[in-house]
Amino acid sequence: MPSAVCRALIAALCLLLAAFFAFVGWNKAFASLADLARYGAWTVFLPEWAGRVVGWSEIALAAGLLSIFVPRRRAVARWSALLLIANQIVAALVHLTHGETAALPQNGVLIALLFAVAIFARPNFARGAMP
């Protein structure tokens, strides 16, 4: 059975990632395009409506990460992490095609942390199976 410490660390990681994605999602959904450009938001390279949709999706997926605290809903946290990995892959590709290579380490770290959540949020892991 997974240790209580391991479960607590994954829960804390989900909480931190949810806070991060809620923050950046809120900015993408509501900030002016000038502010988004100033802070290096990759969505400035999309049509405005598409960038706003990305922001709303990040807010929704941040909420999905919080389902890690509901034992029977851990699969929602896993799927949220997997979808956020896809989000970060697209973000990295956009940064790369626009010469913003300084943003790539952040994308890499987020992908790695989200991958850990996806592994440890598996429903069978919660019941005691090791990854």
TrEMBL record:
<protein>
    <submittedName>
        <fullName>DoxX family protein</fullName>
    </submittedName>
</protein>
<keyword id="KW-0472">Membrane</keyword>
<dbReference type="Pfam" id="PF13564">
    <property type="entry name" value="DoxX_2"/>
</dbReference>
<feature type="transmembrane region" description="Helical">
    <location>
        <begin position="50"/>
        <end position="69"/>
    </location>
</feature>
<feature type="transmembrane region" description="Helical">
    <location>
        <begin position="76"/>
        <end position="96"/>
    </location>
</feature>
<dbReference type="InterPro" id="IPR032808">
    <property type="entry name" value="DoxX"/>
</dbReference>
<keyword id="KW-0812">Transmembrane</keyword>
<keyword id="KW-1133">Transmembrane helix</keyword>
<feature type="transmembrane region" description="Helical">
    <location>
        <begin position="102"/>
        <end position="121"/>
    </location>
</feature>
